[in-house]
Structures are given as structure tokens and as C-alpha cells.
Amino acid sequence: MSIAAIVTDIEGTTSSIAFVKDVLFPYARQHLREFVCAHEAQPDVQQCLQQTQALLLTEGREASSTDELIDALLCWIDEDRKATPLKTLQGMIWQRGYQQGDYQAHMYADATAALRDWSQHLPLYVYSSGSVQAQQLFFAHSCDGDLLPLFSGHFDTRIGAKQDVASYQHIAAELQNEHAVGAGNILFLSDIEAELDAAAGAGLQTVLVCRADVPQTSRHRVVQSFAEIDLALL
């Protein structure tokens, strides 16, 4: 069955996990309190704080001040929680860092080369736990230049969790509407087997990208580099 669209993860797939773990996350943690306090009156920041409070209430907790909401957000960073308001705020903070030239997003050279090639004849999408804004900033400020024009669209946790079959069903439905592409003609790339399991459950084709140790067995096609992905053979 021919591939008519590609959806890719970021961390560990197109780019090093170390960049996000060792650069972006610490940067957001360091600047979160100062950023929220300085921009608390802005509607988008207010919305994030309200969403944080709502999530705390679902856990039987409540923050009585902005400082307590920030404390909760900092705890979520430490726990690597995939909470939408946290991801949105991180994206805002990272935007400032990118614009100030504090860092550039890491890209694997093989991923950049393949994405540039594929984009000439296939629609490319990103699905990451990072917010759409964070994804766009990442690719617009990569070490290989502005790669954002290569992509037709982006998905984040607002469409669903990355290990839920329903999330990939929603993605497939959107691509069907936009490009008349069936689920079986969509290829999803990730370094997380559970995400690929969910995508396969929705009928997508899958490839496990293992940058380091290759598993002895996998339910998915396995590569160590985008250069090993031959779309004609999928």
C-alpha cells in the first residue's frame, strides 16, 4: 500500500532527546516564574493558569494564588507531565529563547535530508506532545535552518494522548478531509513503541526509529536512520 502522507514525532526521532531534556526543559523551568509573573495579565497566559487550576481540581487540589499555580507547573515539569497548559507556556518561553538566539533546535542530518526530499511530493505532519507553537518554533529555528515550510500541519496533545488509538483516528480523519488520504496510506514515525502500537491500531503504517540500541524484536519496521526508510517498500 503506497504512502501518501507522513506524520513524524520529534524527540528521539527527528531530533536528539538530549536537546529537549538538557536545553529546552531546563530553560523553561528557569524562566517560568519570571515569565508568568511578567505576563500574567495577557489573555493567553491567563487561560493557561485557568486550565492549570481546572486540572488541579480534577486531582482534588486547588491553588489559591498565582505562585501556587506556578509551583504546580514547576512540579509538572519535573514529572514530565504532558499537560496542555504547561506545554503552551513552555512554548511561549521557548519562543523568547529562540528569538534571542539562546539556542537552535537540534536535527539529525538524515532526518533533515529525508524530510526535504519527501516534502517535494508528500504532505508532512508533526505529532508531538509539545504544543503546536513549540513545534513550529523548533523547526523554524533548527540547526539546519528554517524547516517549517516543509510541513503541512501540526498535531499536539489537544487531539489526544500519543498512546491512544483515538488520537491517530482523529489525525487520519483530518488527513482524509485535507488530502483524501486513507489511514493505511499514512506513515507514522516514532521512537516510542507504544505510540506506534496506537497508530497501528488506527490502521496507520509505522516505523520505529531507534537511534541507539535496536530491539531484538518489534511489532514494527525498525530503522536507525531516516536514510533507511524506503517509502517504495512500505
Write up this protein:
It is a single chain. It is built from eight helices and six strands; from the N terminus they run E-H-H-H-H-H-E-H-E-H-E-H-E-E. It has a six-stranded parallel sheet with strand order 3-2-1-4-5-6, with helices on both faces. Helix 1 crosses helix 4. The relative contact order is 0.16.
Give keywords.
234 residues, alpha/beta, Rossmann fold, Transcription Termination Factor Rho, Rna-binding Domain, Chain A, Domain 1, 2 domains, 6-stranded parallel sheet, 8 helices
String of helices and strands: EHHHHHEHEHEHEE
Whole-number average pLDDT?
95
Shape: globular
Question: What's the β-strand tally?
Answer: 6
Count of DSSP H/I helices: 8
Tell me what the CATH architecture of the largest domain is: 3-Layer(aba) Sandwich
CATH topology heading of the largest domain: Rossmann fold
| Spatial sequence of strands, sheet with the most strands | 3-2-1-4-5-6
Structural class, from helix and strand content?
Answer: alpha/beta
CATH class membership of the largest domain? Alpha Beta
Corresponding CATH superfamily of the largest domain: HAD superfamily/HAD-like
**Radius of gyration (Å):** 18 Å
